[in-house]
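User: I've been trying to design a sequence by hand for this structure and keep getting stuck. Would you show me what you'd pick, starting by listing the structure so we're on the same page?

Assistant: Good idea, let's start from the same input. This is the structure you sent:
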């Protein structure tokens, strides 16, 4: 029976948020708007970093990488969901589901690592300002990014390979808008003990390590800020990490809230709705959090807009 299930399975059904056809246009318009805002906002951050030499610092290097990861993160799930709504077809192939799950886990892990690396960057900038350029050199920044990618890719690959070993029954309906690993494992007919153990071990290890690194960095930052005598100096030091702290709280609070709410309600559709917070809303808000609170990015974006307006006027003048 196990071999028969493995050979016959061809696709899953993504049930999404609701099966009522009258609300599908509303869901399509809402998620299309959020997706376009996410892509456009994060592309502006990347463009500002690449076009302004004043932003070529470790902090903005990591921020631009986070923006790139957020674009990939949302592009892993939202376009397929929009396509299914438009085509009125909930199916996703077995291979497509595994690939989507792989990249989703990859970019979630990268988000975790990048937020931790950015916390370390703020720790060095505030607690060791005189040695900042020496410590946070280009070699270390590249190494931190490489380690983040390698660790995330390995974790995602192992999780995906473990799912590939499972056999599935006839009920292939996933009550989510993407191929979430927990929902897929619950549909399996074969023993999922090792999958569950691996998932919770990886989530605990990576979540614990990254959150511990962030908390440790900010405990040192608070100690350093408390040692500053002037109120203006304290405010200036805190303002340099306020945006990042907002992103950390938004990402971890929404992620934790999703799993606590899903555990409390035991409703798959409630879990799908709650997961929108960290899979869609958080990547959409990150550019606004940084651009609204950061004068350097504001200036870079203003210069980009001015250059685009000038070029547009020149093109119109030639016509």
């Amino acid at each position: 029976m196990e071999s028969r299930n493995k050979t016959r399975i061809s696709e899953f059904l993504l049930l999404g948020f609701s099966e009522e056809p009258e609300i599908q246009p509303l869901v399509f318009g809402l998620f299309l708007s959020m997706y376009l805002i996410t892509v456009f906002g994060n592309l502006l951050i990347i463009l500002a970093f690449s076009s302004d030499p004043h932003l070529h610092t470790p902090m903005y290097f990591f921020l631009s990488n986070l923006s790139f990861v957020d674009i990939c993160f949302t592009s892993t799930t939202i376009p397929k969901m929009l396509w299914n709504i438009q085509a009125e077809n909930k199916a996703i192939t077995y291979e497509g589901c595994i690939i989507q799950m792989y990249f989703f886990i990859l970019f979630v892990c990268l988000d975790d690592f990048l937020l931790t690396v950015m916390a370390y960057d703020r720790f060095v900038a505030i607690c060791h300002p005189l040695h900042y350029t020496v410590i946070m050199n280009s070699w270390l920044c590249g190494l931190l990014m490489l380690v983040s990618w390698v660790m995330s890719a390995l974790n995602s690959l192992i999780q995906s390979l473990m799912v590939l070993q499972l056999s599935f029954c006839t009920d292939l309906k996933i009550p989510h808008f993407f191929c979430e690993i927990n929902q897929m494992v619950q549909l399996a007919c074969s023993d999922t003990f090792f999958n569950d153990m691996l998932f919770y071990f990886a989530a605990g290890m990576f979540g614990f390590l990254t959150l511990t690194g962030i908390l440790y960095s900010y405990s040192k930052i608070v100690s350093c800020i408390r040692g500053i005598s002037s109120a203006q100096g304290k405010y200036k030091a805190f303002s340099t990490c306020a945006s990042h702290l907002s992103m950390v709280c938004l990402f971890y609070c929404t992620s934790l809230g999703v799993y606590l709410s899903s555990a409390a309600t035991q409703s798959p559709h409630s879990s799908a709705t709650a997961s929108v917070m960290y899979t869609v809303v958080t990547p959409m808000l990150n550019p606004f959090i940084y651009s609204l609170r950061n004068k350097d990015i504001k200036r870079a974006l203003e210069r980009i807009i001015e250059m685009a307006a000038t070029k547009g006027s020149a093109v119109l003048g030639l016509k």
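That's my pick for every position. To get oriented when you compare it with your attempt: Strands lie at 11-14, 91-93, 173-174. The radius of gyration is 22 Å.
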